[in-house]
Amino acid sequence: MTAPPHTTHPHKALAVLCTGLFLIGLDVTVMNVALPSIQSELDPSPQGLLWMADAYTLALACCVLAAGAWSDTHGRRRAFTLGLALCGTASAGGGLATGTGQVVAARLAMGCGAALLMPSTLSLITVVFPDPAARRKAIAVWTFVAGLGALAGPVIGGLLVEHYGWRAGFWINVPVVVVALAATGRWVPESRHPRPGPPDRAGMGAVTCGLGTLVWSIIESPVRGWTDPAIGAGFTLAALVFAFLLRWERRHPAPLLPPRLLADRRFTAAAAALAWMFFALFGSLFLLTLYLQTQLYLTPAQTGLRLLPLAAALGAGAGASLLIAPRWGDRLPVTTGMVLVASGFGFLALAPPASGYGPALGYQLVAGFGAGLAAAPATEAVLGAVPGEQAGTGAAINDLVREVGGALGIAILGSLLAAHHTHRPEPGTPQGPLSQSTPGSSAAPPEASSVTFMNGLHTASWAAAAAALSATLIAAAWLPRRAGPTHPAGPARAPQLESEPRGTSPPGKLY
Length: 511
Prior knowledge:
Layout: H1 10-42, H2 46-74, H3 76-95, H4 100-128, H5 132-164, H6 168-171, H7 173-187, H8 201-224, H9 229-251, H10 259-262, H11 265-294, H12 300-305, H13 308-328, H14 331-349, H15 358-384, H16 391-422, H17 446-478
């Protein structure tokens, strides 16, 4: 492949791509802080609350691999543009919703738009920044913005909900989308795979069906019971679909999920670290938002502001990874980061009732720094395993493990919390759902409700810590000790640009 031309505005292109990425992260968590307000107006069930929070991430996870492959074939900027438009349209629909089902449907559509957006942002970075050192810095910016968007959701959402109502959390996306669409056409170059293979439609369907069935089963299990036939059938169907997927992908000439990647230990370890990291982060944001609003009785805006330390710690960790990874390789920052994530959950797992803000702050500082330290090296390891012509697919795989981890984090940790309210009340405490932890509930005495909530928080936190430690062991065993070259056809070999940008400036560098 000949050397591709490069955009003359790399920093502007990066800013546009990060705007779309920020929007994705914002939409993941802005719903969490709006849930109590939605609950008071629409009166959803406890599982309805979980579906509102999880529908967006579930749709993103189910569709992102197919969207990444589509962008490789039809154009990555085109996918980015379509994703922006779909997110904006669905956000307007959410702002007009009058029932639980309509909110969930809007969140699902927004997740589908985000599936087109997210892999395009990362694959286009490999076009805009072909220089390995500059690309490493750009990926660090990308990982920080991805986390920052998720962490800004409670802050921005809290201010909007408190002053304008929960619908403003949807409407805020519309002007951002309009500006981003205009900037995309001006500064973001187009690129695509020069010789795409036949589409893997069966693989796309299997991924969507398998993930959707798995997460549905997890979300519904606290209400239906783990022994309910529908739950057992759901888990069985998901296992069968994934078994079919693995067998099918070995035979397809252009597989959606290349089987050779699963045999690559560096890829597998990095993907496991990312999955469990986002399992912990997204799940903990759901738990922390409920804790701050239902146990400390903070307003949405106050809740958002008290989640800001997580953003600061994430940024500090990302900066530290730029100093450690080039010299010491991926293993040290990833394993250290995951140990810190697991340790952070200790603050929540050991917190007594009426313990105030301290445990939440301790978790944010320790786990946030650890997540920032591990995210960029793990992302580079995942991308380095995929040839440059399949940058969209590689970015989609990276996004998939993040979003699957996030979806399962909200589903599993939220379900563990809900299970204590639905099935495991304290002795003498009237049985009530998760939603009855909100201020003003009369279903149980406040002290008993607080103890029940904290018991659920402890269980969920121990589960998250165990998951993070398991990923640490995999990373310690399989990631290389020292820094090494990426895949020979990987990101260092950038995808081809379709159009020649104006000007003759040198390739993008990030200084």
